[in-house]
Predict the 3D structure of the following.
Amino acid sequence: MARESFGSGFGVLVAMAGSAVGLGNLWRFPYLVGTNGGAAFIIIYLAFVLLLALPIMYSEFIIGRRSQANVFGAYKVLAPNTKWCNVGLVYVLASLCIISFYCVVGGWTLDYFWKALTFQFSTPDTALLGNMFNSTVTSSTEPLVFMLLFLLVTALIVMAGIKDGIERYTKVMMPILFVIVIIVAIRSVTLPGAAAGFEFLFRPDFSKVTAKTLVDALGQAFFSLSIGCGTIMTYASYVNKKENIVGLSVETAVADTLFAIIAGLAIMPAVFAFGISPSEGPGLVFITLPYIFGQIPLGAFLAIMFFFMLFIAALTSSISQLEVIVSYLIEEFKLGRKVSILASMAVVVTFGVLCSLSQGLLSHIQILGNNIFDCFDKFSSNILLPVGGFFAVIFVGWKMKKPDFTDEITSGGVHPFKRWFLTYVYFSIKYLAPVVVAVVLVSGLI
Ligand code: PHE
């Protein structure tokens, strides 16, 4: 049977951008900016995207497209009879860990979308909204129901395949997402008192930068661009030989970064306009924003749009996580798509239930001071993603032959680049990225 593929270059781009743009931009980025001193964090983040994330993206792209195989098979095709294919297992494990806690937050977004639809945010009391968030996530039933619903939608899209599922739905969902975030941002920046939010986002104060800022910015670059766990590699394996790898990678990175900044503009000015602390932490989106929506004209309507957007953003990311696991099962175990999805779901649901319950019923189970949810998050973001990214650049820089690299990055000469540019890209893959990743990894472990 012929392998599936994307239908168009635009389809690849929206699917890639769909994977990158997600809870990382709307939920994680604002609170990291908030707790790490604003603009200085953003500048460091941008530097990491440029210096580190792009070389890893190119490498994943090269490995995936050249092999036209799942993450495990890719290394088997490109380095037969070696141990390299085990790196693919790291990606499968990383994707499994990420989707297991991601689906819990995905469930919260659906839950809050429902709360917005039924106008539950009209209280002028932040304490009440804090309690609402707390009782929502610690319950042993409500978040599980919404998590299952979230996974069901994810599974149905992946079930339909690459072109008729992932490409078709992300093509509709991504433009909606951009329109909604821009509408919410316009509302936020036109609030009286919004200027302080601008200042926070755009005037850097480097005196606030610590080692933790660096580690947070690096982890965020990996998480937000979906690198290090084989999602880009998997999508790239469905891309035809003529598409421009460099162009697609840069466009994905730009779309993701732009979205994060607009999300910052949608959130921070409103936070300052209402005198709320930007360092509120993970509750920023679920507690602070409902409060703000309750206070402004048309807020109820914006709340509905916002939580719908959060849900869609999470969905276009979770399908990419699931596809890594599913394509591995299909190709390495010769299973059908449906069976592969059911098998993956059995594991994801089990882990997801544990992550969800660890907010309440199972909160007493702590590993090194972290509950189960945080263990899945930290283990994948701080360890597995950097390890996965490290091996991707090492493979392309040191194992793959240079002519093969050049052939793939220029799409067989279809997209030639200037000599200096190719030299820089090769240098960044071979030396720059591995050194920086090694530093993150070590500091992450410490
Ligand atoms: N990039 C996604 C986000 O920002 C999360 C993600 C991580 C998706 C890893 C796929 C793989 O929400």
About this structure: The mean pLDDT is 88. The longest helix spans residues 299-333. The chain has 18 helices and no strands.
